[in-house]
Amino acid sequence: MESNSLEVTVRGTLAPRVSGLAQYAFGKTLTDTGGADWFPADSFHPEGEWGRADTDRRHQFNLLGTAALHRWVNLGASVALQSGIPFNITTGRGDNRDGLASDRLASVSRNTGYGPGYASVDLRWFRKFEL
To answer: Which residue has the higher pLDDT, 114 or 100?
Structure first.
């Protein structure tokens, strides 16, 4: 496995009762396996499986914020944006006769497909009770 990333985090207070955190990560992870239950496209020739890791997300952005505006008005927000994870493009056949239908075309390497990105927005209202 080989992984490189650049991560930037900024946190602070925008007003006396408003604070937040913004975090961005740009990274790349390469590997030659997908884990313990993973099989190469050709079990007889596992070389050439070096490619993007199954969990490789190039871009990740998180934004968290809270605002304590009144005793009954406390708000929180969370935003997460992530690029898609890779996937294998297979033929669905077992032409190499290894018993697995995970073959790829000769010109297609491991995890060359790009999945959809991910976006999440969470909002909350909260009230603090002390006992």
So the answer is: 114
Phi, psi at residue 26, to the nearest 5°? Answer: -120, 120
User: How is residue 117 written in tokens?
Assistant: 């990105």
Render the chain in DSSP notation, one character per residue.
-EEEEEEEEEEEEEETTEEEEEEEEEEEEEES---TT---S-TT--TT--EE-TT--SEEEEEEEEEE-SSS-EEEEEEEEEPPPEE----S--TTSSS-S----TT--TT-EE---EEEEEEEEE-----
- pLDDT of 102 over the 90 cut: no
Q: What is the pLDDT of residue 90?
A: 81
| Residue type (1 letter), 125 | W
120: Cβ–Cβ under 8 A, 6 or more apart, which residues?
78, 79, 80
Name the residue range of residue 99's domain: 2-126
Domain-located, residue 87: yes
pLDDT value, residue 56:
92
Total structural domains within the chain: 1
Cα separation of 100 and 110, whole Å? 16
What single-letter amino acid sits at 58?
R
